[in-house]
Amino acid sequence: MSCIILGHILGYNHKAQHTMHRDCANVIFHNYQSYPLTRIGGQTIKWRKTRWDPKAPSKIFRVTQRKKLPEDELREMTRLNNNYNTYMRAIRRHLHDSYLLTSATSEFALKEQEEIEAEHDRMMEYNRQENERVAKLREERIRNEHEADMERVKLSIVKKEEEKLIAKEEALKLIRDTQEIVKTFIRREDLQTAIESAIANPVDYNFAMDADGHIFRGRNTRPADVPEDEREKLEVTSG
Amino acid sequence: MPFMKGRAPIRRTLQYLEGSKLALKEQVKVFSVNYNIYGDHHAGARDFVFWHLPQLQYKNPGVQMATFKNMTPTPFIRIYLDDGEEVLVDIDSKSRTEIFEHIKKIICKTESQLAEEAQEKEQNPANFGWGCNRQCICEIPGQVPCPGVVPLPKTMRGKYLRGEVFD
């Protein structure tokens, strides 16, 4: 039942209008739901009686008749309805079944899950074997490195020994030479005699050399004085 | 335009990152690499981390990637799965490509799986709107043409239906 509003807004927050009754004395305020517009721009209020609203006086003794469809129409309607329902049920079932096929708990999905796990196990196995292979190679490498280290250490020990020997030799040589030199030292007691002998025997460091490399020692020596056989020749050293 | 900064900045380009096929399986949660900065037998591990870790992280943003340097004498990769399983991969004296292939084989999604997922993600080509091939249904032949180009008939226009305008 829709009523066209002609009244004014009263009191309430939501617009409550009173209906146009013949007897305006009993005006009931009702809550209207929404305000759709009709074709000619008037508002229509959605109106239904609540449970406790009394029946209208004109309708108290009304007995409604069930609508009677002619028989063939009724048959046709039921036939169409049943067919439609059958089809819809079939489609819905089919879709539901195909959904079940791909769901997580279906056989197919479970099998897939098993396959995935098997694949994973295979991969882990492969990885383990690969690790073993690499472990062997690593051990090999470490062993080689260790051996190389030991070799190096041995060599260094030997070298050290050799160096020690050489150093020892050098030290001994030094001592021997010093001992030799010490013999030529002049002692305090022999100082006088040493000076006298030094003065008596002057050493002449002068020498001359000719183009062939013959050395003529002595300040006053002449090349002609020294016979050819006894001439000293400068040694040619390579380098 | 200046060069990109850093060593081998190609690693930071989208093309390089997108081009890798290293999508780890969903079970993987943490991917950690232990290697040294020195040592010949760590060279492969170093190269792998340098070249392929960015790609891995890009393709698997939900996985934690950790690197530990100079802690152990031999390099290895440890992968932690969500059921507590740990996968240890020994990468001593392996080259970068060997490590790459090995990882791809044991713990990455296969090419077929990736293709399947790409196909699933593909949009229904019949869709239209933002991000689809066709913007509006008016572009599709057989549908009502765009009212911006051809005005709608009066029976389809609200102002005539509601009686706001009479023509």
Automatic annotation (TrEMBL), chain A:
Spans annotated as Disordered: 218-239
A Pfam family the protein falls into: MRP-S26
Location in or out of the cell: Mitochondrion
Example of a GO cellular component annotation carried by this entry: mitochondrial small ribosomal subunit
Record keywords, A-Z: Coiled coil, Mitochondrion, Ribonucleoprotein, Ribosomal protein, Transit peptide
Biased composition (Basic and acidic residues): 230-239
Coiled-coil residue windows: 109-178
InterPro entries assigned: Ribosomal_mS26
Major place of residence: mitochondrion
Domain of life: Eukaryota
Family that this chain belongs to: Belongs to the mitochondrion-specific ribosomal protein mS26 family.
Name of protein: Small ribosomal subunit protein mS26
Native organism: Meganyctiphanes norvegica (Northern krill)
Automatic annotation (TrEMBL), chain B:
Alphabetized SUPFAM superfamilies for the sequence: Thioredoxin-like
InterPro entries from the UniProt entry: Ribosomal_mL43/mS25/NADH_DH, Ribosomal_mS25/mL61, Thioredoxin-like_sf
Top-level taxonomic group: Eukaryota
Location of the protein in the cell: Mitochondrion
Cellular component GO terms held in the UniProt record: mitochondrion; ribonucleoprotein complex; ribosome
Keyword set, alphabetical order: Mitochondrion, Ribonucleoprotein, Ribosomal protein
Transmembrane regions: none
Major localization listed first in the record, in broad terms: mitochondrion
Keyword Ribonucleoprotein: yes
Domain Ribosomal protein/NADH dehydrogenase: 37-110
One Gene Ontology molecular-function label: structural constituent of ribosome
Family: Belongs to the mitochondrion-specific ribosomal protein mS25 family.
Name this protein carries in UniProt: Small ribosomal subunit protein mS25
Organism, scientific name: Meganyctiphanes norvegica (Northern krill)
Organism lineage string: Eukaryota, Metazoa, Ecdysozoa, Arthropoda, Crustacea
